[in-house]
Amino acid sequence: MRHTYAHDAVLVMPPDADIRAPGGAITVALCGQWEHQPPCPLAPHHTGADRVGDEIHLRILFATEPDNEALVRERIDRTLADGWPVRRSGPSEVTATEADHAERLSRS
């Protein structure tokens, strides 16, 4: 049974950079390709990105079996570090406002 998780990261990106690029890279790392038919094989996920000055704040929600949580986080961290300067990256809690979205991910 899949559980839901959250992961936060802060990257440094130039002002003209596409803030959607890290989300696409995470999708490739978790699913094998950027565009694919559902379901995601390892971890259905969603990546949100917001620019704050020279930083990009990422919020990744994902659902996977508990035995795969560390693998998913490792792929996220490795992918981000390979593409961008990372200020911080790590686990976070799924918030109450994200609960419905997280539940949909766990059912996909």
Features:
108 residues, Alpha-Beta Plaits, globular
Overview of the structural elements:
- The chain has one domain (3-107): Alpha-Beta Plaits.
- Helix content is 32%, strand content 32%.
- Strands 2-3-1-4 form a 4-stranded antiparallel β-sheet.
- The protein has helices at 21-31, 69-83, 99-107, and strands at 3-12, 45-52, 55-64, 86-92.
- The mean pLDDT is 94.
- It is α+β, with helices and mostly antiparallel strands.
CATH topology: Alpha-Beta Plaits
Kindly provide the name of the CATH class: Alpha Beta
Helix content: 25-40%
- The run of helices and strands is EHEEHEH
| Major sheet | 4 strands, antiparallel
Q: Estimate the global geometry from the Cα principal axes.
A: globular
Record the SSE blueprint.
Elements: E1 3-12, H1 21-31, E2 45-52, E3 55-64, H2 69-83, E4 86-92, H3 99-107
Brief digest:
The chain contains three helices and four strands; from the N terminus they run βαββαβα. It is an alpha+beta fold.
